[in-house]
Design a protein that fits this description.
alpha/beta, about 325 residues, single chain, Rossmann fold
């Protein structure tokens, strides 16, 4: 029997998708933390301590105030990477955490391939060449073909596999590095440096967190080499941005395509100034269809929790 949720308190930590938050408003007794100043946020959380057991939040960032709720049972996250969640607290208190995997795979994989094409063929500068009236003075410099090039994927999860399948249709040779090899038809390398050294294009699909911080460093970029291209659609914290800017400026690598950054929405100043890097404003999952599907999973998990059903997408 489905429980009436209208009187159940739900704290929404931040604004992640207005359409689905409106639906939560209709389903629960919602309280929006982000619309208040710091003092009001404390007062709101204190007022909810006796009643609120559920939180909805973006997965990549949340307010530490959510952990002040003593009866907290579930955190339903909008997003795949859950590096914004303190699992030390949630595990200790047996708080359930859910995320929104798989529904954004296609959108992120599409952006990954767009960045590969844009950097390999220098498309952004080619477009500027036309707009600035330079074409009439001579042809644009030659680009580089994709067919036969070697794509190394650092972090071959479900999104990485979707990227790999797309890459094969472009006649790219795919290899990867994970902690452990998978049963996939791609070459496995046992280190990030070995993968970089063997790749023409190195694509980072790593999650955030301390385990992956600054994995893409000067050594990895030098291993990629002066004709190499670096793509990041994972998390910005996995890249030493100073090292990346230096590698791009000095020709240690040829180009980069980035959709994620360490201090979003602030982008490293030197990266902005460079012509051999394509910069996107973290739009990997930013399609109407994908964001709706993600928001729907947030709601599905909350409704499953309220009715004591198995959660749709628990974080293992």
């Amino acid at each position: 029997m489905t429980q009436n949720t209208a009187k159940l308190a739900l704290l929404i930590a931040n604004e992640y998708h207005s359409e689905k938050i409106s639906r939560l408003d209709a389903l629960f007794d919602t309280h929006k933390l982000w619309i208040h100043n710091a003092k009001e946020q404390m007062e709101l959380v204190n007022s909810l301590k006796s009643s609120c057991k559920a939180v909805a939040t973006a997965s990549w960032a949340t307010s530490p105030l959510i952990y002040e709720l003593p009866h907290l049972e579930i955190i339903s996250c909008f997003g795949v990477g859950v590096d914004g969640i303190d699992f030390g607290i949630t595990r200790n208190r047996c708080v359930k955490v859910t995320n929104t995997p798989d529904v954004l795979n296609d959108a992120v994989a599409d952006i990954a391939m767009a960045l590969i094409l844009a950097t390999q063929r220098n498309l952004i500068n080619a477009e500027k060449y036309v707009r600035q009236g330079n074409w009439q003075h001579g042809p644009f410099p030659l680009g580089t073909s994709l067919a036969g090039k070697r794509l190394g994927i650092l972090g071959l999860g479900s999104i990485g596999e979707d990227i790999a399948r797309r890459a094969v249709t472009f006649k790219l040779q795919v290899a990867y590095h994970n902690r452990k090899p998978k049963k996939v038809p791609y070459t496995y390398y046992d280190s990030a440096e070995a993968l970089a050294k063997s790749s023409d294009i190195l694509l980072c699909m790593l999650p955030g967190g301390s385990d992956t911080e600054n994995i893409i460093n000067q050594d990895i970029l030098r291993a990629l080499g002066p004709e190499g291209i670096f793509i990041n659609v994972g998390r910005g914290t996995s890249v030493d941005e100073d090292a990346l800017a230096y590698a791009l400026k000095t020709g240690e690598i040829r180009a980069a395509g980035l959709d994620v950054y360490r201090n979003e929405p602030v982008v490293h100043t030197e990266l902005i100034e460079l012509e051999n890097v394509v910069l996107l404003p973290h739009i990997g999952s930013a399609t109407r269809e994908t964001r709706r599907a993600m928001g729907e999973l947030v709601i599905e998990n909350l409704l499953a929790w309220t009715n004591n059903r198995e959660l749709t997408t628990p974080v293992r």
